[in-house]
Amino acid sequence: MPRPGTRARIAHFGGGHELGTVVAVREGGRVLDVRDESGATREFVLNPATARFLAAGSAQGERLELLAEEGG
Length: 72
Fold this sequence. Notes:
The protein is an all-beta fold. The protein is 0% helix and 50% strand. The two termini are 13 Å apart.
């Protein structure tokens, strides 16, 4: 279960990516607010069909990948 402070990678459609940090977890872990490298906060929603977090309301296909915590 993700929690605030969890590191993540935002994968952009086309192959690019950037790092981010989960700043809020809502709706029982189904919605995450993530601060990206520019300092902007983006919302990602868990897709129940694929079990992946996808950018809310975005047609760009951004996907959130949660990174393993150090020491865990």
